[in-house]
Amino acid sequence: xxxxxxxxxxxxxxxxxxxxxxxxxxxxxxxxxxxxxxxxxxxxxxxxxxxxxxxxxxxxxxxxxxxxxxxxxxxxxxxxxxxxxxxxxxxxxxxxxxxxxxxxxxxxxxxxxxxxxxxxxxxxxxxxxxxxxxxxxxxxxxxxxxxxxxxxxxxxxxxxxxxxxxxxxxxxxxxxxxxxxxxxxxxxxxxxxxxxxxxxxxxxxxxxxxxxxxxxxxxxxxxxxxxxxxxxxxxxxxxxxxxxxxxxxxxxxxxxxxxxxxxxxxxxxxxxxxxxxxxxxxxxxxxxxxxxxxxxxxxxxxxxxxxxxxxxxxxxxxxxxxxxxxxxxxxxxxxxxxxxxxxxxxxxxxxxxxxxxxxxxxxxx
Length: 365
Hints:
Elements: H1 2-13, H2 18-40, H3 47-59, H4 68-79, H5 84-98, H6 105-117, H7 140-163, H8 170-188, H9 196-210, H10 217-227, H11 234-246, H12 250-272, H13 288-294, H14 305-321, H15 327-337, H16 345-355
Helix pairs in contact: 1-3, 2-3, 3-4, 3-5, 4-5, 5-6, 5-7, 6-7, 7-8, 7-9, 8-9, 8-10, 9-10, 9-11, 12-14, 14-15, 14-16
């Protein structure tokens, strides 16, 4: 099993020099035949690992084109089988093949269809599990649990891999993105119960698809709105920030401004609930209550980018006083990447100097 795993990783990551490339390509049919024979042995310890390695090897540039059709059919037959763990690994291997440069549109469409079908757990009516030798009846709950724990992580990675392939059509990318977004909304609404690992993998897949140029503005903004359902979770907020920072269209700019002011409003509501009878002195800043009261954001009739930058700068100064990690770096990045309101510059500079974190090079706000 370890040898099969290493073969697959080497086939994807190791690039032979031009002199050895022809020799590597000549030996690939023999290696593929060995892997295929091992994948067909019913008593092999882990046939799924062999099928995954088979997909990685055939997807590498050094693989022989002659063996492509036979290996492809082997992977697709195993992916359509009734053994859920084996089918999941075969699907993951087929996703490597579908994302390779030699993949044809019909193969990409077929693999994408299998992956989308395998995204959901088998229902009680559609379960094809064979009854065991004992009298105990097969449990659909155990089949669903095996799907979520074994097959679903590979299916999510495979869908993202096919959607992000350079030769994948834009229609396939958007179909996969829309399907994953629908599943994300179901998870957020508790219509589907996925574990933390699968939910995080789904979030990362949506982030990667939204950052791809084939995604399109409409679907990208829909993904941002979907991720806002879990904006209190740090990974979701990071994904939203990455997507909006990568898109410089006017529509994305408006959404980014709205999201930013919504987060600032939430922070203001949290501050309003904080008791005002807290200790009024500290060893570092004996006038901290007065300082905090002077950092309140002034009411603004218009929500403009300049007012948003100023509000963010004041929030970061407050975080700097509270010794929040990375507040100084964020404040420096804000001052270097965007022009801030000059009226806040003297006050913010004095506070940064007093904090002792940026004495050498205080950011010019």
